[in-house]
Amino acid sequence: MQDLIWFLLPVAAAFGWFAAKRSKGKVGSCSDSILGADYIKGLNYLLNEQQDKAIDVFIRMLEVNSDTVETHLALGNLFRKRGEVDRAIRIHQNLIARTSLNPEQRSDAVLELGQDYMKAGLFDRAEGLFKELIDSNVHLSTVLPLLLDIYQQEKDWENAIGIAGQMGFVGEQPAKAVIAQFYCELAENARVRENVEDAGSWLKKASEYNPHCARARLIQANIARQRGDYQLALDAYEQVAERDIELLPEILDDMHDCHQQLGSVDTFIGYLHEAIIRYAGISPVLTLTDIMRNDEGSESAARFIAGELGKRPSVRGLSRFIDLSLSRSEGAAHENLLILKNMTDQLLENKPVYKCRECGFYGKALHWQCPSCKHWNTIKPIHGVEGE
């Protein structure tokens, strides 16, 4: 509250100066008429820390002209930043209603009011004002990112594509790479609806904007797998890992299923051995361990994973090793392994699996757009003892 008082004190002084300026030279004026009863009342409210009443008085008495527009804009901006959006809206609406504003002043007020509406969640009203500014070709560097943010929050990907197409960068990311993600969103929606034709069209567009888009290949792989074309799906999954090796943990189970359907698990085992060399994480080791347990038994699988844990320490890997050892233990050794298993489970419980490389956001699920910083394709698996 103190910051508002210190802001309003000079505002009150300015109001008194404007009031005095207006009344200067008027016949019969005196100190009371110069300051005015409203000004004295507003100042008393302010000094008594009744800011709400003081603000109402000052706004009512202050004439909007070239000398006071900036004061109105600054006061409304302060209220929006403080979360008092209703007051900010009232101040900026009052500005726009004035016919005395020049075009530049009006565009400034429209921009502020649009941001008020956006902060209030009134996206349709904000969108209308931002479009007005775009049509007038003013404040584009500010308005385009704001309008794009609205379309992303509303998941209006087609309009988002149109706005991003007018931008060289979205934040610090090339606009073309972000547009490819928007097309992937459209393709994924079509895939869920089993509209393969539309999905294919959107994915083609995504690849045109970003030929190296791993997500586009992932969606193509999932579509092929849904349709039972397991070889086509496998080819696409392998291309996903070639384009972004960090997506490998996301595709291993699906690849395993495709190889099982094709009767080519031996080929998959060879792929996993190569992946273990290329990828520093534990996921391909765990997948190969599970296959070995089914084919060769727990003892062979335990020896394999124990050797790998020496190269890449991992709580997840240790937990799997304990599982394999429990089935072959008894007595005190079995009890001790249960204690260790409980400890590893507690270490892994509620542990984040992914982290945004841009802002550090942690999560347990893969997000293509970071919920925190809104960057695209920056969330990757966490590596280290407690991660990959």
Task: Walk me through what this model shows.
With 388 residues, this protein is mainly alpha-helical. The chain has three domains: 2-168, Alpha Horseshoe (Serine Threonine Protein Phosphatase 5, Tetratricopeptide repeat), CATH 1.25.40.10; 281-349; 351-388, Rubrerythrin, domain 2 (Single Sheet), CATH 2.20.28. 70% of the residues lie in helices and 3% in strands. The protein has helices spanning 2-23, 31-35, 37-47, 51-61, 69-81, 85-96, 103-119, 123-135, 140-153, 157-164, 175-192, 196-209, 214-226, 230-243, 248-262, 265-278, 283-296, 298-311, 315-326, 331-348; strands at residues 169-170, 173-174, 354-356, 362-363, 379-381. A hairpin with a 5-residue loop joins strand 3 (354-356) and strand 4. Helix 9 (140-153) packs antiparallel against helix 10 (157-164). The longest helix is centred in the first third of the chain and has 22 residues, at 2-23.
Topology:
Elements lengths: L1 H22 L7 H5 L1 H11 L3 H11 L7 H13 L3 H12 L6 H17 L3 H13 L4 H14 L3 H8 L4 E2 L2 E2 H18 L3 H14 L4 H13 L3 H14 L4 H15 L2 H14 L4 H14 L1 H14 L3 H12 L4 H18 L5 E3 L5 E2 L15 E3 L7
Antiparallel strand pairs: 1-2, 3-4, 3-5
Helix pairs in contact: 1-3, 1-4, 3-4, 5-6, 5-7, 6-7, 7-8, 8-9, 9-10, 10-11, 11-12, 11-13, 12-13, 13-14, 14-15, 15-16, 16-17, 17-18, 18-19, 19-20
